[in-house]
Structures are given as C-alpha cells and as structure tokens.
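Researcher: I need the complex structure. Ligand is pantoate. Inputs:
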Amino acid sequence: MSFSATSSSTDTGSMPVGMVHTVADLRRQVGDWRKAGKRIALVPTMGALHAGHVALMEAASRQADKVVLSIFVNPTQFAPTEDLSRYPRTLEADLAKAQGAGVALAFVPSAADMYPDGFCTTISLAGPALGLETDFRPTHFAGVATVVAKLLIQVAPDVALFGEKDYQQLAVVSQLARDMDLPVTILGVPTVREADGLALSSRNVYLSPAERANAPALHRALTQAAHAIAGGAEPALAVEAARAQVIAAGFALDYLELRHARTLAPVAAATDGPLRLLVAARIGTTRLIDNIPVPL
Ligand code: PAF
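Model: Output:
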C-alpha cells in the first residue's frame, strides 16, 4: 500500500495529511477507519483550493471524525473548448490548506485511475440538470455526476459537502444521491465572498485588474433583484433590471434566472418559492457564476 504523509512548511502542529493515489489504497484506509467506528466526510474538489474550499473542509471536520479531500481535475466535465489545460494545479499549497483545515486524507487519483481504458459509463440526468448551465455546457453535469458518483462509491462517506457557489451542481448531486439510494447525506455550504461581494472561485485568478474591479457587479445585481422581489416587485421586471445591470457592467450574459430553490424549475410568481436567483456571465475570457436566495 502506498500511503504518504505530507507535512507543509505552514505546519500548524495539526496531524499531517495522508495522501493516496489509487482506489485500492483509499479503500484500505477508509475501511480501517470504518472498522474503528469513525464517521467519514468527503469534500470533492478539483484543487486550486481557496477560502471557499477551506470553509468546506472545516465544515466537514465538524461533521465527521475523518475528512477525505479528493483532488481531481475531472476531464469529463470540461468541453473541448474549455479551460482544462489551463485549470490551476497547486497540489503543494492545497495540501497545506487541507492540513490547516483538519483533513485526514487526500485522495489524488490520476485520470487513468478514474477513467481506465475502456471506461464507457456516464450518468444520464434530467430534473435540476436541465437548463441554466446545461444550455451553455451541455455535457458538463454528466461529467460531474459521473465523477461524483464514482467518488461517493469509492469513499462511501457518511456525508459529502459541496459549495452553494455551484448551486445547480449541488442540486444535481443531491438528486443523484436520492435517485440512486446512495447512503450519504449531501450538505451545501454557503458561498464565501470577497469583501466587495465577489464569490470566491478558482477562476478569479484569470481576471485582469479591470475585470476584477467590475466583477462584483454580478453579486450586486442579484442582491438588488432579490430585495426587490422580497419587497413585492414583479419578479420578471426585477430579473430584467438585474440582467441590464450585469450587461452595463461589461459582462456578456449567459443567463440570469429566477428558479425554484430545490427543483430549479422556472417560477412565475414570488409565491412559487423558495426561490433562488442564478447568474452566469463572461467578462473577458473568464466565465463567472453566482447565485443567492430570495429572502421571502
Ligand atoms: O465543484 C467541483 O470542484 C467539481 O465539479 C467536483 C464536484 C469536484 C467534481 O469534479
């Protein structure tokens, strides 16, 4: 078995994070913890960890005795035109953050381990996967759901945590776990934001200084629309005003929509809630997404 313990220069005295690369080694370690009666949490990531991921790992530490962090830049959720090759890869810094956040084990598989020759199964989705991201990235959630299903089966955690920042992903994964009777609780963790409201994202590093200065317009537009709807404004008009605000800030808008918070089905009236506002827009070459609840 290869199980390496990694310790970083920013070591705070916490236990070093173990690291495994294969499913067999992962299962051996998790199996030992299970036999010892430990409760296990999984935080699936693609690395390039930021404060949003730290919040996920810390929340996981409060939920379980042992936290497994997966770091895998999943090729099947990127379209050929997307940023797979330039996606940031920062393993050493990620492990240092994981250690500070109480992670016990990092699972860092290779693409060949996750998708060996001959791999040909994908999860087919509907419900919350329809529309929004899928209108612009038609194969994205099939890739996400397939890799998340694999990770949930490989780790068999009691609980798995996902950021609300990728709200549609959270809805898709929750539906997947329910539909496939996976014995795991899926928990959403609130979005972590910069002081000016920009949601933390691994893709924020691509923003030029001018784009970074404009980027909080997304959150501002959502917040104003949410308050307007909560205050009795006609939802369609509030959404239209938010779209105009985003475009005026220099974004190319993919969508800005008001949806049912659980099913993500379109809604016409505020009484159709709970409600969520979701946006995706491009500034320069960077595509940002965000969402907030409508406080009704
Ligand atoms: O949110 C992410 O980082 C990814 O979509 C996930 C859930 C790790 C699957 O690759």
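Model: Summary of the prediction. Residues 140-155 form the longest helix (16 residues).
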